TrEMBL record:
Residues 248-257 have a biased composition (Acidic residues). This is Cut9 interacting protein Scn1. Gene3D superfamilies: Metal-dependent hydrolases. One of its GO terms (molecular function) is hydrolase activity, acting on ester bonds. Residues 239-262 are annotated as: Disordered.
Amino acid sequence: MTDAEFQFEPLDDSLWSLGVYDAHCHPTDTMDVVPEIPKRRMRVLTIMATKASDQELVAQVAREYGVDRNSNDGDNTAVSCRVVPSFGWHPWFSHLLFDDMKGESNGDAKALKIDHYTSVLTNEPTEEFISTLPDPKPLSQFIAETRKYLEEFPSALVGEVGLDRFFRLPNIEAGPDDKHLSPHRVNLDHQKRVLEEQLRLAGEMKRAVSVHGVGAHGVLYDSFAYLFKGYEKEVRSKRTQKRGPYDFEGDESDEEERGPKPFPPRICLHSFSAPPDFIKTWLHPKLPAEIYFSFSHAINVGYGYEKFPDMLRLVPKDKLLVESDLHIASIEMENHLSAIVRKVGHDKEWELDEVIKQVGKNWKKFVYGDATTAA
């Protein structure tokens, strides 16, 4: 079966009724179609915020269509699609935050703006280019706002966060009809700072995160490893195993004494596209967080990534998620979920109902941890 056939063969109603969970999507990018969400056949959409303008949009959609963990919104009798919100700042927009938590200060607004963009953008931008950009927002303010959203939505994730080595800012000076990109990227050091503070917040609030990684797979892993330091699990030899292959360093009382961990308990590497060997790195038993791998038809199959079957073989069945990564809550979203479910079933030689049931179980564990829920 070709990839094109995967894309256009829909799932049967009986399969949709098992509960298909979209682990990562952006329906608030097309708000006029948001009212279509209840009509979609997915059980739950995990919807991402990425920048200043869509944090409140995601919250609004969650207030209207959010999963109520104390109701039966997500059980097998559900007739409408629901959402779980995620609040975060995407690396593509990380230049729009200035680091007042460890770096830059609140000085003269104009000077701060020029100094900020000059320091965080590559290929030193001109004052003319900087004038097309908005005044940067304090990182501390964004973190405080995100904390409030996480308090409002107890099931919410932190996301979409991450690193991107290749993204270039659009050349706004060229005019609205010109799609030419500027030579400017956001330097990785600044991206890492924005990512770190969001990961620390996720650790404080004990929330899962959805992570973007493009062209910086080693740096991304190192950014997490920096926060994991001192919390690694002790990998025990087979001869000395008593309570499994590894133990956590310390116990609950030790955690209370040390305070919240500076990293999220559960991590989803969304539309994962790193070389397959990175899967082994992320699955090392010493890592003190649960790592999940999510795949989309748009990225992992649509780009013709030849190593996708090899990647799937390396991902444990209980760490596998699927997503659409689409920006519109249309029938196309259903088609993309159908396509990736079929592709996973084909490459792993699983029946489709097995794929859906396993991925649904994994999604609940990723979002809610050990807590049980009807979603």
